[in-house]
Amino acid sequence: MITLRSFVPADVPELVKLLNDGAVTRFLSTKIPQPYTPDDASWWVEEGSLLAMN
Fold first, then answer.
1. I want to staple 19 with a disulfide (CB 3.0 to 4.6 A). Which of 4, 27, 36, 45 is the partner?
2. Residue 22's domain spans which residues?
3. Dihedral, CA atoms, 23, 26, 31, 35, nearest 10 degrees?
4. 44 falls within a domain
5. In total, how many domains does the chain have?
6. How much is the pLDDT for 2?
7. 1 belongs to a structural domain
8. Does residue 2 fall inside a structural domain?
């Protein structure tokens, strides 16, 4: 079973790692900033993901 949850601040380092990996991002939106920084990930965790759900 897969359980989906909202992002939490502890996810920031892994988001940065994954979203700087070309093998991951090549199939995602071209709107993801490169390089993807901890500030980008923090914004997504705190605000962006909430906006995307609405």
1. 36
2. 9-53
3. 30
4. yes
5. 1
6. 95
7. no
8. no
